[in-house]
Amino acid sequence: MSSYQDQKNFIEALKRYENKMDEKERNFFSTTLKRDKDEEDLDSISFARLKELYTKYYVNRKKPNLDDLFKK
Fold first, then answer.
1. Number of domains making up the chain
2. Residues 6+ apart with CB under 8 A from 14
3. pTM to 2 decimals?
C-alpha cells in the first residue's frame, strides 16, 4: 500500500474523532484535510504526525466487550 493510500485511510478513520482532539491537533488535522482535498502528498513529518493521531484515536480506542451484551 502506498503512503498516499495510507494517508487517505488515516484521514477517513480520524474524521469521526475530530471533535475529541485538542485545539492543536484539530488545527493540524483541518490543515491536513485541506491538503488531502488538493490531492497533495504529505511530507514525512506531517505523515508521521497523522500516523500518531491515528494511533492515539483510532487504534487505541476502547473496544466494547461483547460478552457483556449476553449476560443475564
1. 1
2. 29, 50, 53, 54, 57, 58
3. 0.74
